[in-house]
């Protein structure tokens, strides 16, 4: 702990907070890269290991199963051993899983390695947003936590580019590249401080104050924040605390956004973007390059969202952008219903997908980890975020397993219209259940839960 503070002593409070958020967000980069790279690597893996469709699905989905297990297990670990150590554990799993995947000589080892990577991704999705949220000042918490989502979409985009440029190289190199950011995360976290709120929860108030002095603008701000943490302090709560009426509004808002982030179809569109573009009249190589453009659109939308969450607000951002996602999906479904392939129809399809990607990624995907990390009381924040991440990964698994069946059973046009309906339902959900959290400290949000003023009472 002392060593961590000594290493960062030369940095100002704001610079140190930025540095902490940047190193921590490397977990998001690994999250995105390891999730996305399989789409390119699988082309070679299927041929080398003679995988059939079921085998390919198992190799691909093992990482999602691991993520489900990892995010649910990380809550108790982070509560007991601390946020920083849990991130380091995730980094070690990233390193081990990547090394094993790169060296795999058989399908079984490859599946196990993907499962280990899933454990790391699940743990990272649970703990990194909490760690950043608990160390950030209220006025900058939004953009700093959204940095984690920016790292995720950047990782996905890098995986698309890597797959394209290394398409004639070994799939082992594609996997192995992930070891560098994993090493940066593991080593970097060793020099960062613990979460001041976790330290205070453990009764280590002197250490908590030492951290706050380093990451806040003045001694007075640090002292006042520590006092607010202590005033709201209670013992580490069991899982049953999440079911209590006073916590339930936070549970509904955060888990609802986590589920809708996936059920609105963003990953389904991303997974099958090359196929959609090919069906619209683009050649296979052009379809792959257009998918890279979708990835870049996600990055731009997330950068914008990182600005908007602290200027517009979390709730307002979602309510302003989701209607655009609904309209884009209606247009996309119409293109398939009218069989408009090639020419103007192809470009309308591209514009519709880009519009949907920007509006959905820039709203729900930006807010999912941020809202989950900030709405729970300190006593059960780790466990609450485990449920948020678990809901996210469970819905991801459901969408991954059913999208092709929906397309085959309903047709592409009806599938996109169904997703449009879910996006509209997401708008109504946020309008009813998700309050604005912009500019409020974590302790103020906890107090609003305790006094019953958490839920929104009027439209933004």
CATH-defined fold name of the largest domain? Growth Hormone, Chain: A
Catalogue the unreliable spans: 1-8
Beta strands, count: 0
For the record, what is the CATH homologous superfamily label of the largest domain?
MFS general substrate transporter like domains
The domain count comes to: 2
Amino- and carboxy-terminal Cα gap: 43 Å
Q: Helix and strand succession?
A: HHHHHHHHHHHHHHHHHHHHH
Q: Strand count, sense and closure of the main sheet?
A: none
What fraction, in percent, of the residue positions are helical?
A: over 70%
GO molecular function: transmembrane transporter activity
Protein name: MFS transporter
Domain Major facilitator superfamily (MFS) profile: 20-438
Transmembrane segments: 15-33, 53-75, 87-105, 111-132, 144-165, 171-192, 250-274, 286-309, 321-340, 346-372, 393-410, 416-434
């Amino acid at each position: 702990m002392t060593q961590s503070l000594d290493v960062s002593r030369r940095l100002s409070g704001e610079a140190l907070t930025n540095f902490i958020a940047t190193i921590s967000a490397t977990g998001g980069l690994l999250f995105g890269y390891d999730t996305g790279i399989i789409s390119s690597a699988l082309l070679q893996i299927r041929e080398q290991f003679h995988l059939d469709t079921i085998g390919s699905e198992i190799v691909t989905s093992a990482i999602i199963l691991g993520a489900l297990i990892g995010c649910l297990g990380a809550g108790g670990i982070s509560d007991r051993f601390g946020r920083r150590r849990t991130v380091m554990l995730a980094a070690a799993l990233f390193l081990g899983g990547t090394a094993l995947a790169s060296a795999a000589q058989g399908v079984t080892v490859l599946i196990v390695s993907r499962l280990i990577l899933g454990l790391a991704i699940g743990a990272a999705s649970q703990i990194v947003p909490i760690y950043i949220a608990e160390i950030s000042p209220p006025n900058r918490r939004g953009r700093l936590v959204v940095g984690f989502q920016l790292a995720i979409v950047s990782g996905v985009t890098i995986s698309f580019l890597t797959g394209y440029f290394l398409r004639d190289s070994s799939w082992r190199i594609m996997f192995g590249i992930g070891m560098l950011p994993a090493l940066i995360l593991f080593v970097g976290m060793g020099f960062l401080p613990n979460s001041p709120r976790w330290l205070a929860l453990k009764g280590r108030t002197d250490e908590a104050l030492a951290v706050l002095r380093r990451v806040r603008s003045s001694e007075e701000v640090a002292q006042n924040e520590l006092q607010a943490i202590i005033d709201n302090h209670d013992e580490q709560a069991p899982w049953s605390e999440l079911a209590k009426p006073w916590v339930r509004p936070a549970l509904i808002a955060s888990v609802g956004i986590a589920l809708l982030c996936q059920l609105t179809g963003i990953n389904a569109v991303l997974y099958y973007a090359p196929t959609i573009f090919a069906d619209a009249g683009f050649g296979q190589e052009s379809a792959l390059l257009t998918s890279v453009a979708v990835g870049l659109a996600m990055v731009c939308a997330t950068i914008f969202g990182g600005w908007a969450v602290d200027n517009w607000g979390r709730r307002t951002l979602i309510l302003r952008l989701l209607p655009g996602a609904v309209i884009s999906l209606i247009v996309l479904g119409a293109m398939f219903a009218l069989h408009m392939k090639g020419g103007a129809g192809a470009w309308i399809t591209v514009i519709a997908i880009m519009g949907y990607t920007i509006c959905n990624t820039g709203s729900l995907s930006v807010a999912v980890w941020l809202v989950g990390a900030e709405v729970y009381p300190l006593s059960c924040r780790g466990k609450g975020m485990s449920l948020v991440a678990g809901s996210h990964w469970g819905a991801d698994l459901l969408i991954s397993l059913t999208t092709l069946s929906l397309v085959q059973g309903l047709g592409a046009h009806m599938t996109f219209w169904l997703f449009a309906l879910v996006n509209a339902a997401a708008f109504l959900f946020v309008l009813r259940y998700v309050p604005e959290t912009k500019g409020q400290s974590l302790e103020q949000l906890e107090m609003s839960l305790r006094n019953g003023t958490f839920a929104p009472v009027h439209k933004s």
